[in-house]
Every structure is written in structure tokens, then in C-alpha cells.
Amino acid sequence: MGIWISALCWLLPAVPATPSQALGDHKPHVLGEGLPIGTKQAVAFGAHPSRLACGMSTGDGGIVALWDPTTAKLTKVLRGASGPITSVAFSPNGGLLAASGAAKMFVAERVQRPIPGEVWVWDTATGKLQRTLTGHKDWVRAVRFSPRGDLLASASWDKTVRMWDTKTWELMRTFSHPDEVSSIAFSPTGEILASGCGSGSVLPGGAWRPKPGEIKIWHVGRWLPEGELVRTLRGHADDVIGRAFSPDGKTLASASAAGGAPVRIWDTSSWEPITELRTDRPLSLAFSPKGELLAIAGGDALDLWDTQTWQVKASLPAWGVSVSFSEDGKLLGACDRAVVKLWDVSTESE
Prior knowledge:
Layout: E1 8-10, E2 39-46, E3 51-58, E4 61-68, E5 73-81, E6 85-90, E7 96-102, E8 117-123, E9 129-133, E10 140-145, E11 151-156, E12 160-165, E13 171-176, E14 181-186, E15 192-197, E16 201-202, E17 208-209, E18 213-219, E19 228-236, E20 240-245, E21 251-256, E22 262-267, E23 272-278, E24 282-287, E25 293-298, E26 301-306, E27 311-316, E28 320-325, E29 331-336, E30 339-344, H1 346-349
Parallel strand pairs: 1-30
Antiparallel strand pairs: 2-3, 3-4, 4-5, 6-7, 7-8, 8-9, 10-11, 11-12, 12-13, 14-15, 15-18, 16-17, 18-19, 20-21, 21-22, 22-23, 24-25, 25-26, 26-27, 28-29, 29-30
């Protein structure tokens, strides 16, 4: 692994380090020099073959860059998104890539919401845009394929989650929420969908007043095509912006937008909280493929938690807005403002 990439930050064990062993010694580089300058918003690994995707916003729209993570070679640039990209996701077989965002570019200081949201779907082999899914009345904040790849879920600030059939691209169902929806996750079996919602308000003078967020648990199996609300999980002080199921489906991790708020770990058999993890403003989280690690990105660090002890095993200097493990669990990718960082975490997974 050590021969291939100058953009790779080697992850060392979480033990007292000499200066030569410090995590910050290996400075990351931007993958794919020559791409348009823009903010990297979302990262995801795909399989068959192994790929790393990064969704980014540029001056005239959004693009998705695809790299071979074993060589750091840029293989494709997917174009056609009309606005900034907020999330990317590969289909289970890697043949499709979906991205979400807004339907047009805008100047942040002058934006008047709502801005209609869109979902773009590309063929990863040809790089061609296959479909643009419309209908959301506000930004689409997240997209996820079901484990079987037959469904695509999109979460929007228009307070809905839409479920799309990936064969016909017809809208199958709309799930309504009381507030803006920012995050979604399928369980490993694909029968459960967790969606996180919440929205605060801006007070005079610019201060933010949070509103408690909720997690909706839905049955969405093919045997129940209309969906069924199973449970509403409460306890977060603000919008639920991140959530992930463990690979065995026994736990669900959820993160709130409130600064200093804990990441909650839920038992999916009872939907009761197991523990809380104290972090600095979590923005994104992901379980490793074997479930032994939970990566939590936010603040000025990307922490790796041991899921047996729920203690921090390693901490990386990265302000990650999006984080993802490779399918074999050896690599961890994160968007850190204007760069994409990669770490070899194989030693932490052993």
C-alpha cells in the first residue's frame, strides 16, 4: 500500500507517538490535479471495480470525480449536474452512481429558498448521465441505494423522502416528515429505512435556535411497498444530519447538527439508546465493513471509535463533511473542505 499515493495519510495506532510518527506528518494532497476548483462535499467508495467518488460544487454546476483508489488515478469526471452536489452513492454493483443537490447554482448571500432539488444518475462505465429525477421542492440532501439496488431513496429539505424504482425510475412512494430531512440510511437487509429530520430557526442578530430532531424508522421491504412507520426516535437537540447502520444491522448510529451534541447509538431490536459518544460537532459518520470501527467526522478531527469498547482508537486532523470506508475496510476517505484525504486504516481494523 505504501508505494502508491502521495495523497495517502498513513494512520498510526492511537498510542503516544514520537514526532516522526505523528499523524500530521504525512500531509495530504488533492486527488486529481487539474479539476475545477470547488468545494468537495461528498465522498463514497464503490466496488466492482474499486472506485472512489467525490461530489464537488464548481462555479457552473456540480461534477463527480472518480478515482481508482489503488493507484490514485483519475478515471472519469461525471458532468451534467445543474447545481451544487450534497451527496453521492454507488449502486451495490457499482454500475450506477447517484448524486443529489439543488437544481441550480446560486450566490449563498442572495439565496431565496426553496430551491428545487434534483437527483442525477450516471452510468459509471460510460460516464453518461442516464437520468435526472425531479419533483423535490427544495434541496435534496442525501441519496442512498437499497442493498439490492432495486430502490433509490432521496431525502430533501422539502420534508419528504422519495423512493424510486431503479428499473423504471418511477416514483414509488413519498414519506412525509414534520421537518426538513437531511439524512437517510437503509438497514443491511433493505427492509428498514432510517431518516433524520429537524430544523431550527435564525433569531434576530443571526443566532441559531435549534429545534429537537427526530429519526423516523420505516418498513420499506418489497412485501410492504407502501411503507410503514415503525418508530420515531427522539433525543437529539437539533437536526439529525448523519446516520448509519452497523453491518450486522444490530445498531444504528445517529448524529445531530448541534455543536457538542453526542452521537447516539441505538439498539435496533428495541430502538432504545445504548450509549452516547461525545464529539465536537459531528457532521458525518460511517461504520467499517466488519463493524469494528465507527468513523465520526466533524469539528477539527476525524475520530475512529472501537465499537466494542466505545472508546476513541485513533484521531485524525481533518474537518470532514463526508466520510466513507472502502469495501474491504482498508481505506477511509473524507472530504476536508477543498481536499479529499485518504488513510490506510488496515492496521486499525486488525
